[in-house]
Design goal:
It is an enzyme of class 3 (hydrolase). By secondary structure, the chain is α/β, with parallel strands linked by helices. It contains eight helices and six strands.
Length: 221
């Protein structure tokens, strides 16, 4: 448990998880994968989403599935990529929607740590992946861990905006209490479903909700 290098407030809220059998098995699996294969993100970035956005600072949660599986792409934040990496199609569509919704042009840098440090938890359901093998670390235990994260936020925090894009994220968010949070639902920003993503104005709705609860809005650039 002491070896888990995750931000202190998250460690405190997740202490019980680190003693569970699924976590012990997951830790062994992930360690072996890093020793024998090319795995993303780099080990230091596995918990980057939490390190940049402490538990009590979370204003928004954006749920992704698993990390990008190409060189230099995954950086520990859902939908984000390394700062010098070309924007993936889903992120391009997110930026297009921000421009259409808010009338601002996001920076071309796809790292998105600028959002995370403002209180946007960019949470992938699965936190690691083998190179060029999408969903290769699915059903190994990460989903249980990230379910516990959403459960902790739902039980101990309120007035959080959850952006659930696509069926996968929506199922993961079924535990969220709609009466004390804002849950925004649309299609996934992937080119395959972007027509169901565009036009939902999630970013303006998010900021309007935050302002209405006297919470500083997010600069989505």
């Amino acid at each position: 448990m002491k070896q888990i290098k995750i931000e202190d407030s998250w460690k405190m809220h997740l202490l019980r998880e680190f003693d569970k059998e699924y976590w012990i098995n997951l830790k062994e699996f992930v360690r072996d994968e890093y020793l024998t294969k090319k795995i993303f993100p780099p080990p230091k970035n596995i918990f980057r989403a939490f390190d940049l956005c402490p538990f009590d600072k979370v204003k928004v949660v954006i749920v992704g599935q698993d990390p990008y599986h190409g060189d230099g792409q995954a950086n520990g934040l859902s939908f984000a990529v390394g700062k010098d990496i070309a924007l993936p199609p889903s992120l391009k569509n997110i930026f297009k929607e921000i421009n259409s919704d808010l009338g601002i042009t996001p920076f071309e840098n796809g790292d998105l740590s600028r959002w995370a440090t403002q209180g946007v938890l960019m949470l992938n359901s699965v936190l690691t992946v083998a190179a060029n093998q999408p969903t290769s670390h699915k059903a190994k235990g990460w989903e249980i861990f990230t379910d516990a994260i959403i459960k902790q936020l739902n039980e101990k925090r309120e007035n959080i905006v959850y952006m659930l894009w696509g069926k996968y994220a929506q199922v993961k968010g079924e535990v969220i209490d709609n009466n004390k949070n804002l849950v925004l639902i649309s299609g996934h920003p992937s080119p395959y479903s972007a027509n169901l993503f565009f036009g939902h104005h999630h970013f303006s709705k998010c900021n309007e909700y935050l302002i209405s609860h006297r919470i500083n809005l997010i600069d989505w650039r």
